[in-house]
Amino acid sequence: MFAHICKIDWQTVRTTAEAWERGIEQRWPKYYREMQGISDGAQLPFIDILILNIRTEIAFGMFNDGCTSLYRKTDQHAFLAQNWDWMEEQKQNLILLDISSDSGPRIKMITEAGIIGKIGLNELGVGVCLNAIKVSGCDSSRLPVHLALRSVLESSSTDAAVRQLEKVGIASSAHILIADKEKGIGLESTAKTMRRIKMDDQNWIFHANHLLLAHDGVVDSGWLVDSPSRQQRIQQLAAKFSASTSREPNVVDIIRMLDDHDGFPYSICRYEEGPLGMDATLFSIVMDLEGATATVYLGRPCEPEDVIQLDFQ
Q1: pLDDT tens, 159-188?
Q2: Does 25 share its domain with 160?
Q3: Omega before 304 cis (within 30°)?
């Protein structure tokens, strides 16, 4: 994947990652120790596990990782949801991870083997989603994106998670959608900047794979040509729902939004066969943070290969 997208070989990737190792060990030792444990258990070099967890930074966000995420607060529910799109070959590496700790809340997330922070929720009803954004540059003094996701899942609230990430900074470009049962906040980051996206007047937040806000001194590459159209479409679907019904959306309504094929192949639900190349929807997740539960649809939501319920009972 590095060779195909970034034109760099594995030894160069390893050399690049070595420059991050000492800083992560000093500033975030518990994450360093967890990656060391994975390395020992898998009998793989530590640097290879570290590479998985800082892959966004190494490639400056140059991965074909297209996703559409949303948050909606209602009177009785707080939905956080997204499609996660990437190359089909990565599907076999997806795992559901259940983490218990004496020092923080229990966590359930769907991630890729070896990566300690990804998309999911904790028992306190704090959840997180991720949208890749391609803006050149990274800063090794800041928290890598996937470790930032783990930091959110160890937090007690949206506000606590946002304060922590604004304090330490995020090492490269991304949109991290953080939510609990009270509110959602989107954090758009680059290696130099961080901006908040707040709920609109209907308590929605939407995001695809391009910067929505102005960030001084950085340029969005516009790497996925369909990102603006997906952003517009998910907003249209929400507006259409509000206009056609007086009730609040439920889980079925949310998954139908993620299962939209308007504009195919440049659609929210994506297929690898399209002209965009590598990416397809590998899973969809709908969390209800009011009850700290989630439903994971493996594969495309229109043709789920399995449906898994996550809760903390």
Answers
A1: 999 999 999 999 999 999 999 999 999 999
A2: no
A3: no
